[in-house]
Amino acid sequence: MLLPTALSERAPAEARDVARVVERTAARDAAPARAAAKPLSGITIALDPGHQLGNHNFPSRINRQVQAGGFTKPCNTTGTATNSGYPEATLNFAIATKVKARLEALGATVRMTRTRNSQSLWGPCVDQRGRFGAKVGADLMVSLHADGARAGGRGFHVIATKSRKPWTADIARPSLRLAKALRAGLDGARLPRSNYLAGGTALTIRSDLGTLNLSDVPVAMIEIGNMRNASDARRMKSVKGRSTYAAAVVSGIRRYLSR
């Protein structure tokens, strides 16, 4: 038999236990609501880090012809590099990884055409990349590249696909809107526009890229800068610079989605 004093001592402890249970239950129930409240919840985004570090080790594989939207092209290429040897494939992958982390933190599901950057790997081919967005049920796809132009040229440009039946007529308009949104995101980060093509608009429309031609979801390609330009190369090789690029790409995606 418990004496009244023992009962009075036990009551506060029981109350604290009940309070802790209620607190844990409330936190558990609130978690899905917090997740649902993230701005990109329910959105799937495909990212295509251009090239692969090991492409140059597999010439017969990357040079074989594949469909590219009514014509054929080589499966892939080696990409370019800075004058000091920093590879485009590595830059593309580094930026894509940062973009992925930022998008996932905002609630998006992110799928990448390649998940490793290795001398022992090659591809995927441009036809696989082009079809990837639809394959993973993406709402859009962004392909990340860097240019290898003359050393005096600097700055980014964005590429949208030309409307061509039966290939891209259904996605050309939203793809152009995506390209313009990405350009706005890069502009917002005060990154320089290309001074060597597109007349300062930093926007080109092309029909020769399999990654764009074979897409069945809105798609755009970014040439994030010119790797042969000293100023662009310094930014590309720095952690801060790559973070700036990634934040700008995410900003552009959010502009496109109005989220």
TrEMBL record:
GO molecular function: N-acetylmuramoyl-L-alanine amidase activity
One Pfam family of this chain: Amidase_3
Superkingdom of origin organism: Bacteria
Record domain MurNAc-LAA: where: 130-254
GO-annotated cellular components: outer membrane-bounded periplasmic space
A GO BP annotation: peptidoglycan catabolic process
Keywords from the named record: Hydrolase
Gene3D superfamilies xrefs: Zn-dependent exopeptidases (3.40.630.40)
Record's protein name: N-acetylmuramoyl-L-alanine amidase
Record organism: Nocardioides marmoriginsengisoli
